[in-house]
């Protein structure tokens, strides 16, 4: 597994960036910026520390799939850590076997640091090597959309 790091600056307070990013006031803000990864991207569950959360979308054939994850840490406006431990196929959770091994135990960490009304958002993502170039291409697009949502 490879750790990738991405960073952007957003002209908004850290709490606002955090709330927009997670879709806490309106789930659509989460769905809008994550649409860069999958146009049907959403989540089911809670962002509370210790909670299970599903990150879901549908594929080109309309099949539901995604990640089974846990919120390891959630310090509002400061830090969020997500641990992925399974995949979804339809409504079935798969938490062991070859399909899961490349993701199991991987984390996504989001750090929000505010200075003078500008928030530096740092994202660290553990991924299988084969997805690195996809993330290198897609995260900047997702950041552009997130910035647009948080700055308005």
- Taken in chain order, the helices and strands follow as EHHEEEEEHEEH
| Unreliable sequence segments | none
Ends distance = 36 Å
Q: Into which percentage range does the β-strand content fall?
A: 35-45%
Q: Rg from C-alpha positions?
A: 15 Å
Outline type: globular
Oligomer: single chain
Mean pLDDT: 94
The helical percent reads 25-40%
Protein name: SRPBCC domain-containing protein
InterPro entries: START-like_dom_sf
Tell me about this structure.
It is a single chain. With 152 residues, this protein is an alpha+beta fold. The chain has one domain (8-118, 131-151): Alpha-D-Glucose-1,6-Bisphosphate, Chain A, domain 4 (2-Layer Sandwich). The protein is 27% helix and 43% strand. It starts with a strand and ends with a helix. 22% of the residues are buried.
Task: Detail the topology: elements first, then pairings.
Elements: E1 2-10, H1 14-22, H2 27-34, E2 42-45, E3 52-58, E4 64-75, E5 79-89, E6 92-94, H3 98-101, E7 107-115, E8 118-127, H4 132-151
Helix pairs in contact: 1-4, 2-4
Brief write-up:
InterPro entries: START-like_dom_sf. Helix content is 27%, strand content 43%.
Keyphrases for this structure?
4 helices, alpha+beta, globular, 43% strand
